[in-house]
Amino acid sequence: MTKIKYCFTFLFLFCVALTNAQQTHIDSLKQQLSIAKADTVKISLDFQISKAYANTNPDSMVLYSRKTIQLLHHLLATENVDSFKMQILWNIADMYQYVSNDSMVFYAQQVLLICIKNRNSFPAGTEAKALLNLAGSLWWAGNYPDAKETYFKALQLAEPLADTLLIGRIYNGIAMVNRNAGNYREAINYYTKAENLTRSIPDNQVLNTLLVDKGKSYEQLGILDSAYTYVQECLSMYFRKFQGKNVYGGGIHSAMGVIYSKMGKEQLAVEFFRQSFQLNTEINEIRLLARGYCEFAEHFDRFNQRDSAIYYATKGFLIDQKFNLLVQQLQAAALLTKLYKQENKIDSAFKYQQLMIETRDSVFSNEKINRLQTLEFNEQLRQQELASEKTKSEEERKINIQYALIAIGLVTLIILFLFLSRSFITNSKLISFFGVIALLLVFEFLNLLLHPFLERITHHSPIFMLLGLVCIAALLVPLHHKLEKWTTVKLVEKNKATRLANAKKTIDKLEDKMKDPNESSKNA
């Protein structure tokens, strides 16, 4: 009990100090806003004020978010370049995150429409990234079927580009949908795909994200040793990369707190939860803060401290309800229903049970669950077809390489025969002709051999593929000229030797013929 009192005291004092510091910061930002002239400056200040109000005054946070959105709309109305419009629209969608889920999704859709309109002029991968962002917005709004379908569409566009980090981000998104829907094994499968792609790239954010989420998936399955391994690796990478700077809040610390709690290490769990609250509050990470409160409530329930469990579960639920975080709201309502039943407070249990049922019907209706399963099945079929086509393509490539080697071998044998034969004089033009044929065959052989490597490093870009082939030709042509020159010299020497040999044979025959009549006359 002493530990819990210490924890509550620390959190109270920390919140008081942080609130005072935030108010001073907000006053400073408001003063700057009052004298700002440019819209871009006003947008930046409104955004900062909105973030600063996140944990102290949610209504003010929403108010300044709306002011930021209004200024962004004014900026959008004066912008004519689609690439800049796209960025402004995405900023509007981002600002709607804690204001209106429907508006957030709408403006993410507008970004995608601009990308489709400029499909032939925007850089490769822009549309896939827009689909990825739209899928993230749908996931945030709790629309998992549409989120999953959009992630799969993004994956289909990203696969031909061979952009490792982009594909890894998409796999992470699909895994998040599966994990939040309770499909932990399927989530681990997609996290593993992303891990296999990005493990060799040092300190990348895709790997950092998947490590903690994969660890949480194992934790939710009760496989705590694997969960601890992944979350601990994520923590190590985070500290190594950011040197203790608070960049993403305390989600990793909260995950480690849950693992220690389930391992029965109460003191360590409380310490990590405390750090999590501090980090999330510092950067106004509302979603992670609310989730952390509910996970802390589960910790107290695990150690039979139901008053504290109800307190933190209620804090998490109110934040989730305030900002329409549907999935977390469902989890918090389910936890509160369980806790109040244990306390035999039937009215409160019934209240939260009704809220839980309503939210669950909204997010996880039978129709939506069936659609999620159908989407997953269709994607598995598509992946099987892709694997089959890849295997077939590899077999065809191997056969073509064998044909090229056979052709190179035949031409080489012909050249060697003509070059080494002592029976007749070889025309140098004939050797040059076969040399050109051999050069073309070698170039085609190298093209077949190196084509997958070139595709991988150039991301299927036609210009870079062409440059790669030009570089190969630039190496082959001088080598061919040197070989042709050397062969010509040797061929001239061979032809001279052949002519001398033929002349010697002719002289010998003539001498033999001259000797034969003389010998015949002497005998007569």
Keywords:
single chain; mainly alpha
Structure description:
With 524 residues, the chain is an all-alpha fold. Helix content is 85%, strand content 0%. It is built from 20 helices and no strands. The chain has helices at 2-35, 39-52, 58-77, 82-95, 101-117, 126-140, 144-158, 164-180, 184-198, 205-220, 224-242, 251-263, 266-282, 286-302, 306-322, 326-342, 346-363, 366-420, 428-458, 462-523. Helix 12 runs parallel beside helix 14, helix 14 (286-302) runs antiparallel to helix 15 (306-322) and helix 19 packs antiparallel against helix 20 (462-523). Mean pLDDT is 82; it is low at 1-20.
In short:
This protein has 524 residues and is mainly alpha-helical.
State the major sheet. Answer: none
- Our count of helices gives 20
Structural class: mainly alpha
Shape: elongated
What is the string of SSEs from the N terminus onward?
Answer: HHHHHHHHHHHHHHHHHHHH
Instruction: Report the average pLDDT across residues.
Output: 82
Task: Give the termini separation.
Answer: 143 Å
State which percent range the strand residues make up.
under 5%
β-strand number: 0
Q: Compute the CA-based radius of gyration.
A: 36 Å
Uncertain segments of ≥5 residues (pLDDT<50)?
1-20
Q: What proportion of the residues is helical, as a percent range?
A: over 70%
Could you state the oligomeric state of the chains shown?
A: single chain
